[in-house]
Design a protein that fits this description.
Elements lengths: L1 H14 L6 H10 L1 E6 L6 E8 L4 E4 L1 H4 L4 E5 L5 E10 L4 E5 L20 E6 L7 E6 L15 E4 L11 E3 L5 E8 L10 E5 H12 L11 E5 L2 H7 L7 E6 L4 H5 L6 E5 L2 E2 L4 H10 L4 E8 L2 E8 L17 E3 L5 E3 L5 E4 L4 H4 L7 E5 L2 E2 L8 E3 L7 E5 L5 E5 L22 E2 L1
């Protein structure tokens, strides 16, 4: 019996993965992780990024860099560099940065996708706390959160908060499993559900971004929903399958092919469609050919349509310069009387976040006294920052406060979050 137990123990010891120095892999991950700030007077904290492979480029989330042409990145050793945004795709939420002086090697992809129950580590700057590592496990099989985007994300329960966006999700050896990008919408902070873009998707997207060969997500001009049991029963269909077309927009790709509201799409490119999300992957696969075949059922009659998706042209939106428009104080959560006294502060709004309270008086805005009724009406936006207020406190002391509506905590483009998908999906 002792011999059997000894053999079993030896088998368990030799069959488990061996990590000579578990901390070494995480140290490598930290060394390759970057903290991202805006390259302007505000130096606003934006999120995280990490060096990719050779280390001369970094990847991050597109919502971290926004429309900034360049950002400033800080390394774990304390030095910082100016990083140019080489490319970005806001829909897939991936951006690539140039790191010409980066001395650290980048992180390499893990040899296999994250497995259910695998221990994972999120590295980044949650809530601005730089170079933090949290541990969890892959808590579900990869899932598609936005049915119109052909990406499946790793769900895990390592603590992720605002600021983790763009940071790596790694294994114990510091190899990349994914890039943290989202938490559950409606939660101000982590509640146990985090999502990361898989490294398999990054390996496909990053090279195409760099070579400018990544095609935009195809938009057919339709809205669809899954055919569930109730819809199938109402339409007299034997079983729930396919997707029901709710709307077809005129003069768009689907309309030109003859698709109509009420059609049921049963297959794309010969592959059966059982859920709206499957359409996104079929559209991506068909992008090189520029043509998609649709099998549809219309009033019980099977039809085949051909979509021409080769006409899709990517026209990036320009980055408009800030305009000197007058903005009411209520947009910042303030109410002022005719003497610039603060009569109300909206809870949870920009002014409340900045520590402004009812009963204080605004003495000046951006260095200019509020000594005229017309000056109290609002403030003129002339820069990317919010107004600088000189406040007279209740105790008769004065202080300066910036009300910044573009701070990451208030900007939906940089807020990390995702909610449950709607029934109706637009393509």
């Amino acid at each position: 019996m002792k011999a059997i137990l000894a053999a079993a123990l030896l088998f368990l010891m030799t069959s488990q993965p061996s990590h000579a120095d578990p901390a070494a892999g995480l140290e490598r991950a930290i060394a390759a992780t970057l903290v991202v700030h805006s390259n302007d007077a505000t130096e606003s904290f934006l999120g995280s990024a990490f060096l990719w492979k050779a280390g001369n480029i970094a990847v991050t989330c597109a919502h971290v860099v926004g429309r900034n042409p360049e950002v400033r990145v800080t390394f774990a050793d304390g030095h910082d560099e100016l990083a140019r945004v080489l490319a970005r795709d806001p829909v897939r939420d991936v951006a690539v940065l140039s790191i010409p002086q980066g001395a650290e090697p980048g992180l390499v992809p893990a040899p296999a996708p994250a497995e259910l129950g695998q221990t994972v580590y999120a590295v980044g700057a949650p809530l601005g706390v730089e170079f933090t590592v949290t541990r969890g496990m892959a808590s579900a099989r990869p899932r598609q959160l936005d049915p119109s985007v052909p990406i499946r994300l790793i769900q895990h329960d390592a603590a992720v908060n605002n600021g983790n966006s763009g940071g790596p999700l790694v294994d114990i050896d510091g190899r990349v499993l994914g890039m943290n990008s989202q938490i559950v919408n409606g939660a101000p902070n982590f509640i146990g559900l985090s999502f990361a873009i898989s490294v398999e998707d990054l390996e496909r997207i990053v090279p195409q971004l760099l070579t400018e060969t990544l095609r935009p997500i195809v938009r057919l001009g339709i809205k669809v929903r899954a055919v569930d049991g109730e819809i199938a029963a109402a339409l007299g269909i034997a079983r729930a399958k396919g997707v029901l077309v709710d709307e077809v927009r005129p003069r768009r790709i689907a309309a030109r092919a003859g698709l109509q509201a009420g059609d049921i799409i049963t297959a794309m490119n010969g592959t059966e469609i059982t859920a709206p999300g499957e359409m996104a992957f079929q559209l991506e696969d068909a992008a090189p050919s520029g043509r998609v075949t649709l099998d549809v059922t219309r009033q019980g009659v099977a039809r085949r349509l051909v979509l021409d998706i080769g006409r899709v042209v990517h026209r990036p939106r320009p980055n408009p310069a800030p305009q000197a428009a007058e903005i009411p104080w209520s947009d910042l959560g303030l109410q002022l009387d005719d003497h610039a006294n603060i009569t109300a502060v909206a809870p949870g709004h920009v002014a409340a976040f900045a520590g402004v309270t009812q009963g204080e008086q605004v003495m000046a805005v951006n260095g200019k006294p509020l000594d005229r009724p017309d000056a109290i009406a609002g403030w003129k936006r002339q820069a990317i920052t919010g107004p600088l207020l000189l406040l007279l406190r209740k105790g008769k002391d004065t202080t300066h406060v910036i009300l910044d509506p573009w701070h990451p905590w208030f900007n939906p483009q940089v807020a990390i979050g995702v909610g449950a998908g709607p029934d109706q999906i637009a393509f």
